[in-house]
Amino acid sequence: MYRYILTLLLSSLTIPLCAQTKELSLKNAIQYALEHKAESKIASLEIENSQYQIEEVRANALPHLNVEANVANNPLIQEMPLSLGGQTQMIPFNLKWNSQASATVTQVLFNQAVFMGLKAARTAKEFYIINRELSDEDIIEKVATTYYQVFQSKELQSTLETTIASTTRIKDIIEDLHKNGLATKIDLDRTKVALSNLKSQRQQVVNAIELQQNALKFFMGMELSSPISLAEDTFQIDESVLLVEPNVEKRTELQLLEKQKDLLHYKKKATIADYYPSLAAFGTMSYQGLGDKFVWGGKPTDGVYWTSNAVIGISLKIPVFNGFETRSKVRQVEVELKKIDVQLEDTRQALDLSFKNAQKSMENALITINIQKDNVSLAKSILDNIQNNYKQGLASLTDLLNAENAFTEAENNYTNSLLEYKLAEVQLIKAKGELKSLID
Q1: Distance from CA of residue 121 to its chain's centroid?
Q2: Residues forming a β-bridge with 313
Q3: 288/306 Cα distance (integer angstroms)
Q4: What pLDDT sits at residue 241?
Q5: What pLDDT, in 10s, does the model give residues 351-366?
Q6: What is the spatial distance between Cα 4 and Cα 292, in angstroms, rounded to a whole number?
Q7: SS3 sequence, 293-342?
């Protein structure tokens, strides 16, 4: 009864754990990363922040209203001399208590720098949107590359498992033959050594898979404790990607530089705006109370007197000479624009080079894949023949073990060539500016 209850409890614990294992296709892995990775979240926050920057700049073109109030006590009142009829008397210049409340409103009527700042802020938001695209592409590249590496290691593990199973069968046969005096102990020991080496290689691959999966989870923004499994149809060869010529101008890196150039143009215009006059309207209304007693709530009968004041007007500011400061600032921006032009040209060449290199790497990988595929078929055929010959006593154990090693190596080389192809494919898709197609 206790065993029955324990079995039910273990089953109830095991089922949810298994259900939590995520089977990831490359598309799902990328989509998860774009939603959870810190870089993507930060890029989204920068876009949100850029909207607030636009509102901040827009505020400079809207009316500003300030209200101010104060109350002051004058324990020592300044006196001023006043001469009347040949006599001079010291007259107090103030009363003991003084309170004032005022409201001031200002409105920019013309300020070229404010208007250019608003356009620059809107362009800055576009810059952050493009920057997020670049951040997403960087995430996609890392996830795709690591995903293929994990898959390749799992393929290596599968090949080793097959070889280990085959070698284990051979070891069991030789062990039976040795018990019956039909095989030497040296052959049995050599088989055990070969099997031990294969298990050691498998353990190394298992360790590598664990490290690669942890790296994949990190690039996805996933908890390292979350179990995952990869889809089975990852290494598909699509040669059509080699036929499309790239449109370099679509690359996010160039769009980002172009947007930086636009921002510098607005910065230059905003700096030149310092040469222009600025015009603003203002208005102030104040209410002041004075008396020898505390003025709040006081009336003339209490010796407290209140007065009001209002002023409206227009302020015109005309810059005349500032020691060539504005000219120096403009020339600094012009140098920055020239630097952007140099970066644009250099980036175009670098992107063109990366495309050609990725294209050539894919072509070479395709050749290698075809060669390794033939090698796998040939190594398998040789292994089958030697296994038959060994059973009939026509081949030595050395020949059999060598054939198994050759087959395992051919399988691994084929898997490595597939990985090289997929990694080159990622770089080619990136060079075409179409990394987002991996999730379409």
Answers
A1: 22
A2: 282
A3: 6
A4: 66
A5: 889 888 988 888 898 9
A6: 96
A7: CCCCCCCHHHCEEEEEEEEEEEEEECCCCCCCHHHHHHHHHHHHHHHHHH
CATH of domain 22-61+111-275+324-439: 1.20.1600.10
Give the separation between CA 422 and CA 365, rounded to whole angstroms.
9
Structure tokens at 438: 């991996």
Give domain limits for the chain: 22-61+111-275+324-439, 64-81+89-110+277-318
| Class in CATH terms, 64-81+89-110+277-318 | mainly beta
Task: Please report the pLDDT score of residue 94 as a whole number.
Answer: 80
Report the candidate in 152, 144, 232 with the shortest Cα–Cα distance to residue 428: 144
**341-378 core/surface letters (b: 16 or more CB in 10 A; e: else):** eeebeebbeebeebbeebbebbeebbebbeebeebbee
Give 184-188 contacts, CB < 8 A, sequence gap 24+.
187/397
* 43, 135 Cβ separation under 8 angstroms: yes
Tokens of residue 153, six digits: 């290691």
* Residue recorded with tokens 């089922």: 15
* Sheet architecture: strand order including 64-73: 64-73, 97-110, 278-291, 304-317
> What's the pLDDT tens digit per position in 143-191?
999 999 998 899 899 889 988 998 898 889 888 888 888 778 888 898 8
Predicted confidence band at 64 (pLDDT cuts at 50, 70, 90)?
very high
For 362-397, how does the pLDDT look when each residue is reduced to its tens digit (9 = 90+)? 889 899 999 999 999 999 999 999 988 887 878 888
Collapsing DSSP to helix, strand or coil, 101 comes out as strand
